[in-house]
């Protein structure tokens, strides 16, 4: 389309829809799946580790920019995918009917390389895909679990296949037996992919369960402390008591908010992983077998209580945080009201002092009028004595006495006018 300007991400977004397709499986086949949590920079080391495997197998250097890879060698196939919190390695190997010792795809991977896979192992699964002509479902069901555990079994893909497992770890691996009755290679690949995703997302969802237990203990203690603080707030008799309670409440709020910040992602991730588990189980299209629990029922019975506990703890934590915030606001309001009352008393005292100062000032102004009048009349007296021949028959004493009211009047009017000007300037400054 040369006539249109292309968005730079258009091709990438289009390719994402088709990314990470399931690997088609030709019955019989072994699948070994490993999931490693990213830990201490392990995600950055994965690229070099995969390139080392490709070089060891004389394969071209792989392109890892897309976050997924399919390597094919003579002995096995490897499908690698990088996810948000973990990376998965899925190994496939065709079963050789003539080789009775041929077990599990992982055994054909170079031992030193698989030992050094970066990260922390969080899920490990063996899947054995067999034909119902080779392994009869009725025979396996009659034997129950060969390891003595209760078996989880169901028909999948609308009856085209069978899935059997006990969801226990044996030598570090969970085991699934997929029996192919009428599965196409792509159907078998999709079923295998859904099974390993169910196992991985189940474990990833359960990562929040120990966190929920730890947070539950914190919440119980914090709720008891909050109740004690509210009792203390009701019994407070002074502003000092309120400030002491507010300080303890602020410390408790910080502790709870720190817990919220540490656990919000984990609880949210648990809910998201659980939804993926449910979706993958629905995609299996299970049919119940008499006397056996299907995978969906097993997960409802074993996984749902833990997920509900995590969700309950998350809601309880958010509720406690909101309660602490409300109580803190209430207490701050009480402290603010007390501070406002104290400020009003202080302002009232300042007003009384200002009135006293005003009275003193008026008194001083009156004395100032007298003092200025006295000194000014003395000047008049000295001047009249020097010019007594010019003012005859008026004597200097009479002239001085007559000037006193005039001088006092002018001084009083001048001071009054000055006070008015200062008052006007102060009023303009406050507007």
Descriptive keywords:
single chain, 431 residues, alpha+beta, nine-stranded mixed sheet
Topology readout:
Blueprint: H1 10-17, E1 29-37, H2 42-56, E2 68-72, E3 77-82, E4 86-94, H3 111-115, E5 120-131, H4 137-142, E6 152-156, E7 161-165, E8 174-180, H5 185-206, H6 208-235, H7 239-284, E9 287-288, H8 295-302, H9 304-386, H10 396-430
Parallel strand pairs: 5-8
Antiparallel strand pairs: 1-4, 1-5, 2-3, 3-4, 6-7, 6-9, 7-8
Helix pairs in contact: 5-7, 6-7, 6-9, 7-9, 9-10
Shape: elongated
Number of helices: 10
The residue ranges in which pLDDT falls below 50 over 5 or more consecutive positions are: none
Number of strands: 9
**Helix-strand string:** HEHEEEHEHEEEHHHEHHH
Mean pLDDT: 87
Sheet bearing the most strands, described? 9 strands, mixed
Structural class estimated from helices and strands: alpha+beta
Q: Compute the number of structural domains.
A: 3
First and last CA, distance:
68 Å
- The residue fraction in helices comes out at 55-70%
Radius of gyration: 45 Å
Strand percentage, roughly? 5-15%
Largest beta sheet: strand ordering: 2-3-4-1-5-8-7-6-9
């Amino acid at each position: 389309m040369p006539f249109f300007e292309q968005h730079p991400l258009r091709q990438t977004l289009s390719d994402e829809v088709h990314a990470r397709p399931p690997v088609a499986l030709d019955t019989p086949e072994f699948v070994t799946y490993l999931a490693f949590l990213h830990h201490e920079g392990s995600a950055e080391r994965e690229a070099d580790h995969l390139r080392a495997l490709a070089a060891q197998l004389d394969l071209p250097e792989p392109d890892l920019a897309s976050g997924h890879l399919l390597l094919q060698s003579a002995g096995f196939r490897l499908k690698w995918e990088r996810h948000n919190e973990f990376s998965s390695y899925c190994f496939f190997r065709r079963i050789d009917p003539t080789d009775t010792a041929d077990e599990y795809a992982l055994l054909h991977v170079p031992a030193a390389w698989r030992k050094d896979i970066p990260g922390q192992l969080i899920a490990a699964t063996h899947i054995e895909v067999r034909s119902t002509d080779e392994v009869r479902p009725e025979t396996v069901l009659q034997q129950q679990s060969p390891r003595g555990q209760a078996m989880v079994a169901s028909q999948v893909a609308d009856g085209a296949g069978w899935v059997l497992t006990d969801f226990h770890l044996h030598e570090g691996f969970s085991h699934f037996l997929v029996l192919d009755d009428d599965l196409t290679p792509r159907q078998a690949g999709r079923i295998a992919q859904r099974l390993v995703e169910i196992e991985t997302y189940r474990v990833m969802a359960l990562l929040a369960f120990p966190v929920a237990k730890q947070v539950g203990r914190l919440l119980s203690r914090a709720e008891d402390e909050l109740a004690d603080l509210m009792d203390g707030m009701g019994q407070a008799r002074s502003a000092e008591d309120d400030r002491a309670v507010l300080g303890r409440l602020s410390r408790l709020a910080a502790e709870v908010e720190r817990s919220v910040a540490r656990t919000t992602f984990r609880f949210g991730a648990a809910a998201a992983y659980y939804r993926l588990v449910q979706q993958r189980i629905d995609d299996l299209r299970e049919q119940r077998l008499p006397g056996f629990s299907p995978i969906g029922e097993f997960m409802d019975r074993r996984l749902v209580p833990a997920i509900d506990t995590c969700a309950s703890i998350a809601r309880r934590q958010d509720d406690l945080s909101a309660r602490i915030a409300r109580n803190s606001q209430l207490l701050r309001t009480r402290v603010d009201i007390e501070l406002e009352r104290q400020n009003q008393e202080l302002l009232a005292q300042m007003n009384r002092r200002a009135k006293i100062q005003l009275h003193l000032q008026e008194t001083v102004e009156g004395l100032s009028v007298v003092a200025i009048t006295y000194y000014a009349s003395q000047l008049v007296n000295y001047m009249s004595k020097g010019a007594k021949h010019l003012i005859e028959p008026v004597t200097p004493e009479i002239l001085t006495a007559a000037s006193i009211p005039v001088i006092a009047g002018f001084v009083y009017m001048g001071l009054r006018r000055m006070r008015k000007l200062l008052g006007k300037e102060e009023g303009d400054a406050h507007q």
